[in-house]
Amino acid sequence: MSLLGRDVIAVRDLSRDDIEEVLAASKRMIPYAEGRKSSTLLEGKILVLAFFEPSTRTRLSFDSAMQRLGGRTITIADPASTSVRKGETLHDTIRMISQYGDAVVLRHPNEGAARLAAKVSERPVVNAGDGAGQHPTQTLLDLATILEACGTLSGLKVVLLGDLRHGRTVHSLAYALALFGSQIVLVSPPTLRLPEEVRTQLDELGAKVVDEMPLPQAVRDADVLYVTRIQRERFGDDAEYAKVVGSYRVDLALLAKAKPRLIVMHPLPRTVEIAPEVDATPHAAYFRQAFQAVPVRMALLALLLKGSAK
Fold first, then answer.
1. Catalytic residue at 135?
2. CATH top-level class of 136-289
3. Which range among 80-84, 193-197, 220-224, 242-246 has the greatest average pLDDT?
4. Could you confirm whether 107 is annotated as catalytic?
5. Catalytic: 73?
6. Which of 86, 94, 257, 284 could make an S-S bridge to 117, C-beta 3.0–4.6 Å?
7. Where does CATH 3.40.50.1370 sit in the chain?
8. 11-133+293-305 belongs to which CATH class?
């Protein structure tokens, strides 16, 4: 099934074939993302970037991706400067702005906002993160990073570390890893475990999931360590946040017992969960991961708006 004109709200909207198509196309996009080649594939197309929640990498990489393909962007970066401040509903905002471009990329603090937007938009909608819900394009670039480093997405041992309760990146990534048959190891503070509904979905897929174990044991024979920060903005109570912040840290002592080819990933921004000295090791893959956002989103936009990334 072609991706042309489709909404991308959750990883579950994509089949394994869809994912593999995007990843293959993203590899071809790397020289364009690096500026070594130029493209006019999306010339004349306009992408609406509607960001109702703070973002650096996601917003800028979508902007870069569209421009690298010869298209243009228009942006909402500060909801306080829009009619939302006057009481306009998300329904009306999306219905209106979808008429100004050829696709809409939406980030919103409320889970389910992207699905609502897709129902009312006249153009394809891409979910750039909805609260603690889903972040499908982050998952695609995560998979591209793993594939580039490991040469496969199947048969790997992937440790998911951190805030698994609120972390929309790990919710999406876990589902995708299950599609490819990799083992998923969960490590988190007790109050931040993976939500039951996500675990149920994984069980329905027949995923290989290993429940909580000590971090040193989990990392010992892992291929990928995917680290997330504890998200202060998801806590209603600062006291609860204070109880768990700093409860884990990836440093040289931890990595000394890991496989030489283990890669450490992080969707960024990081705070205290990865020591700065890890940056200089061969394990650090998070800055390459951030770069992969551009070719992956280039590939996805080309497939959504043109039906081809060639």
1. yes
2. alpha beta
3. 220-224
4. yes
5. no
6. 94
7. 11-133+293-305, 136-289
8. alpha beta
